[in-house]
């Protein structure tokens, strides 16, 4: 399938451009067309009127929404705010997109599952979130679908990169400051590089444009829906931390880094429950768009090279 830019005058409205994924999308989407990336003050996802007004002013061809309430533990005590941003704002995007014939790309999470079993989750598997955050993200998926807007939802997991706040940067900072670090070793999944997600998104948009010949909605009727888009391979948080510190130690042999120790989830209680199994099958993404997400080990090396 070929890749194409947006038609003349086509705009992409991007939320959350100050975040990990949004920041990468801001760069990777530019070759496709004009990208409008309002600040939080200009488009407040907690305020439905602000969302509506921005979309009506921009009249985008695509709405790309990585913006979200992502404070997993804090969401347990702020459910109203989590649902406002992760569900109601998404509903508003869907309603406005349908009214103007725009396509919506929305990002969701492995937290929509309960994490039972050990098999990689497929898009059709039952969703049973075990946290407020997970429930709010699932509500956003359903709200978008219920609007009837042409859309794609990309569920991802364990997002990290060279910018923003994430597990990798926290681990490397703490590993320089402490003698030992205790990291959970019984939660399984795959780290996903924010830039890999952004590149995949740009590729998908470009292919939809090429296939549609200007008729975007008919293409999304065919390829729309939910896709899993997480790093290839699998590890644990402990495995991710240990490999990151090992590789950084090779790069800085004169620096003393902390020893990484395994602990169980029970030894590291948090307000929100985490899925023990965050493995995700990305076969549908490969079958529909020919895109394979990077193996987490390879992306880790690329990110470390940027630090």
Q: Indicate the proportion of strand residues.
A: 15-25%
**Distance between the amino and carboxyl termini:** 35 Å
Order of helices and strands: EHEHEHEHEEHEEEHHEEHEHH
Structural class: alpha/beta
CATH class placement of the domain at 11-165 and 192-233: Alpha Beta
Summarize the biggest pleated sheet.
Answer: 6 strands, parallel
> Quick check: average pLDDT?
96
Shape descriptor reads globular
Helix content: 40-55%
The Rg value, from CA coordinates, equals 19 Å
The CATH homologous superfamily name of the domain at 11-165 and 192-233 equals NAD(P)-binding Rossmann-like Domain
Spatially, the strands of the biggest sheet line up as 2-1-3-4-5-10
Give the strand tally.
12
How would you describe the overall organization of this protein?
By secondary structure, this protein is α/β, with parallel strands linked by helices. The chain has a domain at 11-165 and 192-233: Rossmann fold (3-Layer(aba) Sandwich). Helices cover 42% and strands 15% of the residues. It is built from 10 helices and 12 strands. It has helices at 20-28, 48-58, 79-100, 132-147, 167-177, 194-212, 216-223, 237-251, 283-289, 296-306; strands spanning 11-14, 34-36, 62-65, 103-109, 150-156, 159-160, 180-184, 188-189, 192-193, 225-228, 235-236, 259-263. The strands form 4 sheets. A 6-stranded parallel β-sheet has the order 2-1-3-4-5-10, sandwiched between helices. The chain has a two-stranded parallel sheet with strand order 6-9. The model has no long low-confidence stretch (mean pLDDT 96).
